[in-house]
């Protein structure tokens, strides 16, 4: 069109029409483009084992970069410090005792609604790559998955992450559940390109500081570094495809580090998770961090709200989308967690606020020794040596104590490691009753139970070796309801 030959009024009309149509096209394009979501979950990594959480030794530059450009949660908590119960809780939006998968290696029942299925039914391409651990019924939530399909996930579980992102259909928004085996025992990253020196390790007070313990932690850090490396590759691929801006990347872990007093425990060392959210289109680059409490059951409703998909009424979490937009916002005042059978008989329940942690132990006659893979670790062996010498500190002795207190209360303003149980102190009597009531109300509201015939030990509590007995499951908490 030769604009110079048009009359002034007609020229104005043409320019207005072009501008209007262009604006409508751009508006429609941006409003109809739903956010993509990449959910990345580590295996057995504690909250303070990333650099962005203050760890000065571990090498996690890619996660740290995501945190610096996004939002870091300082108070994110799991519902179980145990692999499959934690993952099934996240994907179902319900507590372990409420979704029928409360114990290790129990599959999520088909009656539960995994949130990626709802994304799939609402136009999202959904894919899973890496560790599974949720049962065959959950396969239906994904267009593509690696479980039982002949895929080789690699030693760390990350082999198909970038491949699946490259091979996705380009005409749909996407959701990827990327799950690593890092950092689960046995260690497999000691010869990876990124390693750590045992001499530089800071040993927690509840471990025995020996060369063997330091090497154990260094090997654990090597797996974390491998996990971080592959996250960097995922980000690069998203950037290469030009979709990083409108992609929500979430990085977290399913439970605490596989060490004594961490994995399976309801203390922060087991139940607090790193949680980093990167979303350039919505999160201010200066957002920094948030102190707001969130629970793993909040992840499903949050992702569904991000995708503008209705949240099932029986989901037990609440969306924290408003925190992503305003780090000062709060969606809950407390979180709840549980410890059920994981190699050993157990029944613990925990409620935590920003200031206090309370737990109730329905099996105080049993030691709280940690899972079998931890019992076989060099770190455990070093603690056993101190025990045999009668030289354990109170913090180191915790995993051996039996009987245990039925109730524990920790004042987090006084000490963060949950080492000093104040439940018996008179000045905390009112707080003890308050926290106990909160926990009981939650148990009643969510249908929690304490069966007499809980699944018994399948492993030796001293050696971690499998017992030569018939391994029969008891009644899982919540199943009666």
TrEMBL record:
Sulfatase N-terminal domain span: 35-309
Family: Belongs to the sulfatase family.
Example GO molecular function: arylsulfatase activity
Signal peptide boundaries: 1-27
Organism: Draconibacterium sediminis
SUPFAM superfamilies per record: Alkaline phosphatase-like
Cited Pfam families: Sulfatase
Name of protein: Heparan N-sulfatase
Domain of life: Bacteria
Protein's UniProt keywords contain Metal-binding: yes
Alphabetized UniProt keyword annotations: Calcium, Hydrolase, Metal-binding, Signal
PANTHER family xref list: ARYLSULFATASE FAMILY MEMBER (PTHR42693), ENDO-4-O-SULFATASE (PTHR42693:SF53)
């Amino acid at each position: 069109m030769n604009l110079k030959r048009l009359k002034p009024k007609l020229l104005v009309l043409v320019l207005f029409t072009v501008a209007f149509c262009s604006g409508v096209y751009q508006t429609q394009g941006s409003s109809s483009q739903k956010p993509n979501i990449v959910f990345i979950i580590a295996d057995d990594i504690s909250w303070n084992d990333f650099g962005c959480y203050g760890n000065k030794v571990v090498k996690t530059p890619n996660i740290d970069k995501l945190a610096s450009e996004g939002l870091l949660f300082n108070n994110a908590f799991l519902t179980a410090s145990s692999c499959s119960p934690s993952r099934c809780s996240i994907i179902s939006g319900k507590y372990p005792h409420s979704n029928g998968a409360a114990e290790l290696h129990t599959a999520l029942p088909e009656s539960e609604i995994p949130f990626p299925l709802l994304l799939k039914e609402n136009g999202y391409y959904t894919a899973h790559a890496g560790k599974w651990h949720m049962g065959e019924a959950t396969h239906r939530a994904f267009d593509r998955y690696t479980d039982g399909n002949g895929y080789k996930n690699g030693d760390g579980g990350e082999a198909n992450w970038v491949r699946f992102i490259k091979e996705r259909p380009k005409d749909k928004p996407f959701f990827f559940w990327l799950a690593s085996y890092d950092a689960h025992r046995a260690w497999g990253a000691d010869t990876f390109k990124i390693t750590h020196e045992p001499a530089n390790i800071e040993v927690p007070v509840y471990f025995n500081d020996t060369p063997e313990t330091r090497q154990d932690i260094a090997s654990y850090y090597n797996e974390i570094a491998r996990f971080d490396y592959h996250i960097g590759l995922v980000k690069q691929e998203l950037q290469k495809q030009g979709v990083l801006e409108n992609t929500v990347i979430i990085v977290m872990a399913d439970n605490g580090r596989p060490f004594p007093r961490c994995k399976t425990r309801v203390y922060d060392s087991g139940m607090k998770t790193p949680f980093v959210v990167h979303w350039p289109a919505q999160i201010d680059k200066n957002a920094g961090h948030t102190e707001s409490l969130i629970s793993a059951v909040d992840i499903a409703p949050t992702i569904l709200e991000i995708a503008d998909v209705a949240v099932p009424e029986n989901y037990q979490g609440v969306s924290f989308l408003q925190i992503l937009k305003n780090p000062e916002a709060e969606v809950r005042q407390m979180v709840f967690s549980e410890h059920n059978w994981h190699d050993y008989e157990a029944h613990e329940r925990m409620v935590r606020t920003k200031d206090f942690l309370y737990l109730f132990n329905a099996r105080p006659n049993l030691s709280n020794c940690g899972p079998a893979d931890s019992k076989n670790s060099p770190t455990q062996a070093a603690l056993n040596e101190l025990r045999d010498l009668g030289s354990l500190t109170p913090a180191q002795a915790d995993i051996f104590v039996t009987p245990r207190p039925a109730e524990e209360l920790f004042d987090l303003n006084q000490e963060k490691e949950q080492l000093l149980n104040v439940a018996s102190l008179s000045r905390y009597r009112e707080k003890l009753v308050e926290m106990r009531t909160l926990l009981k109300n939650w148990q009643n509201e969510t249908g929690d139970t304490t069966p007499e015939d809980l699944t018994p030990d399948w492993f030796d509590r001293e050696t971690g070796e499998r017992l030569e007995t018939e391994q029969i499951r008891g009644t899982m908490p919540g199943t009666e309801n």
